[in-house]
Design goal:
The protein is α+β, with helices and mostly antiparallel strands. It is built from seven helices and six strands; from the N terminus they run H-H-E-E-H-E-H-H-E-H-E-H-E. The N terminus is likely disordered.
Length: about 180
Amino acid sequence: MEHSPGVKGGGVKASKKEALAALRRGDKAAFASITAELAGVKASLARADELRRELRDQVRAEQQAPAASARKRVAGKAVTKPQPPAPRTADETAFLQALRSFAASEPPGALLSVRDFRGQLPGWSKARFDKVALALSEANVVVLLHHDHPASVPAADLVRYVFDPAGFGGRGIYYNGIAMRRGAS
């Protein structure tokens, strides 16, 4: 923020002090300039608070929107449009059936170990399993949880995680947890 000549300290408090000093000196021009600056700061803060409230309301609205809806922005507002379910491949269908069966012994929505679930699809290659898991995640049917520190995992265990080479800006990402998304079919 720029201040009138003679303002020291560079902050709003300094401007208030300078405004009072200018008023005492009878320097009406300096007083008017500083109070105009303060009014501008007050308006900026009010606008920032208004934007914060709008953002909070948008986040809340999106969190309450159904999981099976597509979200897009029109003039800064969230608009939801129901999306028809995408047709499933035979691999996706088999994957989901195995996941539902594997998850049946857990509480609804529980996060499951990818390493343990991989054993439910014997004969599937790592590439096939990972491709289907990533496709279902992209389609918002399953949720994948990434490992926070894969470098700490032994290589023998790491190969049992789902790997997305495009994740984290092309550096790759390992997923060690999986769950059905609420409302997914």
